[in-house]
Amino acid sequence: MVTFMEVTGLSYIQILLYAGLPLSIILWLVTYVYVKKTLSKTLKEFPYSKEDIANSAENQNKSNPKIVTQSTVAFLISLLGLIIYGIIIEGGATFAIIVIVVTSIITGLAGRLKINDIVEAFFEGAKPLIWLFFQFVLFTPFIHYVEELGGFEALKDLLIPLMDTGGDLTLVAVSSIIGVAGIPGAAVAQVVVLDEMFGAIFTTAGLSASVYIMVLVVGSQMTELLYPVGDTLGAMGIARSKDLKSMVIFGIISTIAILLFLIVRTLIL
Known about the structure:
This protein has 269 residues and is mostly helical. 86% of the residues lie in helices and 0% in strands. Helix 9 (187-205) runs antiparallel to helix 10.
């Protein structure tokens, strides 16, 4: 969000109204319809294992409702407080790590856990996803490597004649698709690359900032839906799901729906 604001000059509320909320509503609707359609099938083909069900029941039996409530309240208060503090100090991606660690400690202490137990639970939960952290760390230098070699610049030069002859709609469609399918990596890096490639072209074309921010949001956020990446696989791991086929189909449908909305929005504006 900070990167969006810096690149476009829009406020948080403007970005929310122009892009965040419209795209979220579409995704909510697509997700609801798709889940309703696949629920009966996945319940039969991909049920939770007996071990997962047994562990869940055992944890519920051991839990004290009063302590659970206190730890939940502590979690919400600490998380909200840190988010507000992070906004005030304009904390970056590294601040997110502090939020995770501090919130975990406060929640654990409110849940009557010892420090050793908190640390053990923290790393046990993080263990399956540690590789994702290193993946995201390596994504950014990979994008910079391609950028330094002139790959993105060459792609832009190749597409400029097409966008010049196709008009505003072609510019919006091509830049969005390039962001979604052609630039892998962390969202912040994708936004920066997209802006370097197409920012000046959008300005010259006279397209509004409300259209441009939608292109940036779609181009940087829909990548993980179009094809499975770290976030998708991490969520599947946490949910104990192996139904990759349904995730791929859902991602394609969601991406098509978002791109169609973006095209219609461009035509209207």
